[in-house]
Amino acid sequence: MPIFKLKNEIDNIESAILVPAAKTTLEMEAHLECWLENSPWAIAQEPLLIIGRQTSAYQEEASTIFPDLLGLDKDGNIVVIELKKGRTPRDVVAQLLEYAAWANDLSDEKINDIFTHYNGAENEKSLEKLFIETFETDDFPSLNQRLRLFIAAEEITPTVSKVCRFLRQVHGVDVTCLQFNVFQTEAGDVLVNSEAIVGLEDIVNPKKVVTQRWGGEKSAKQIVRENVDEFLGGDKNKVFTPKDINQLIIKKYPSFNKTTVGCQITSDSVNHTSRHHYPGGEDLYWWLEKGKYRLYNPEKDKKVI
């Protein structure tokens, strides 16, 4: 998929033209691994906490495998990410499933060991503390209840996409294939384009039960905003916390994932320190301090770009 830069030589936006950006010759796999490690939102379009990179995974036959990136999502599920330069080889699916078989057996103790090794033993923040900070939640969930698998490459081949779609829709494997391309403008700006080749389909388990994200008539954003307004009762200066909003939402929507609330509020907070990890957020709330917010007032609040 080509990427275009809007070029406007005169002060008239309507006269601008679209200039295609050229693909770069950057070492895709090495750079992409660093970029995704630093910006995990780009992997799943939601917050992720990276806990390992090139983690040593020992198999029964004493061989060693190294998943490129290992992380946790807001529900404590293990996220395994495999990156490939160029076209995906046919054996990438087998490689990913090998990682999945290893990750599936990880105990809480082992997950904490992986995190400590990755984050540095001298770092005082525990996995639980960093998880709570990252996802702005009051609860630390049970870990590794489910696996989420990702393949990221410059080109996802039809064979790989067909097999992954089969695993996802017939056998209930939560696998996503992402295609990344890097472009560079004449001015030297580097642009990265991502496209989900597999992953937008519902996940169907072997018993034919469909597993979906929140799929109510109202979006998660709308539900959170309505309940924030209800909690505030018209007082635009009143302070609220994700926990306050959770208590209202769960009464109406018992199946609503409560960790979604903190992430949605963060996404829509103008000045939150992690705002850049949440593309698509609206200017709705103003972050006061950890876990505390009020409505955004553009007349007195200085927006942070």
UniProtKB/TrEMBL annotation:
By its UniProt entry, which Gene3D superfamilies does this protein fall under?
3.40.1350.10
Organism this protein belongs to? Methylomonas lenta
According to UniProt, the name of this protein is: DUF7669 domain-containing protein
Q: Domain DUF7669, which positions?
A: 221-295
Gene Ontology MF terms in the entry: nucleic acid binding
| InterPro entries attached to this UniProt entry | DUF7669 (IPR056086), tRNA_endonuc-like_dom_sf (IPR011856)
